[in-house]
Amino acid sequence: MFTNDAEAGAPDYNAFMAGISATHEGGDPHVTAIGHSYGSLTVGLAAQEKGGIPGADDIILVGSPGTGADNAQDLNVGKGHVFVGAAENDIVTKLPNRAEASGMASGVVGGGSTGFVLGAGMAGPPGALIGGGAGAIVGGIAGYNAQDAQSDPSERWFGTDPASEDFGATRFVVKDGETVLEDHFKMSAHSNYFNRAKDQISADNIANIVVGNPDRITLETPR
Predict the structure, then answer these.
(1) Is 201 exposed, middle or buried (0-12, 13-18, 19+ CB in 10 A)?
(2) Could you tell me how far CA 53 lies from the centroid of its own chain?
(3) Which of 81, 107, 124, 159 has the fewest Cβ atoms within 10 Å of its own Cβ atom?
(4) Per-residue pLDDT tens for 144-158?
(5) pTM of the complete model beyond 0.85
(6) Cα–Cα distance for residue pair 76/111, rounded to 1 Å
(7) What is the CB neighbour count within 10 angstroms for residue 148?
(8) How far apart are CA 116 and CA 91, in angstroms?
């Protein structure tokens, strides 16, 4: 995954938010910028532009793989005004950082090649297929673990995990959601944050932030 689309979208998002602010001149509406999934990177980059997101009082990030920021303070609304929802079984919020992904890829290639050769030598073409597959899995896990041991545990693909203690945002409670195996790889845990029927506590927490009542949200311990 790349940052190109988010980088291109950030100035347009700020232009849109500036337009919203212009329609409320003379008033002081409570404005919340919300980013979900890759959209949280767009919002995060927009917030880091000079002056931040026009008119934004709070920022909500849900299902986020990172914002491009190291700390909530970098988002220009004050760290006490950055809120994060991250379901335990939402794998997007746990994407490996770039070093871990690189180690995994190298391990898959190396392990798969070795397993293919050894399998072919022992059992011909069927052995090569089995050995290659098994070697790729084992190699990928080994490569990931090797890089993970050397990486900051709060780092994700697009920077510091917004749900981590290091990031410094306020994390609110959401339901864990189903694992990818339980929901047959539909990744429903990544899509339930706004759905009151499936995750009422998340939807209620988001609503309380949006209407300016963050004191009513249910807090979750950062990772």
Answers:
(1) middle
(2) 20
(3) 124
(4) 444 544 556 667 679
(5) no
(6) 45
(7) 16
(8) 30
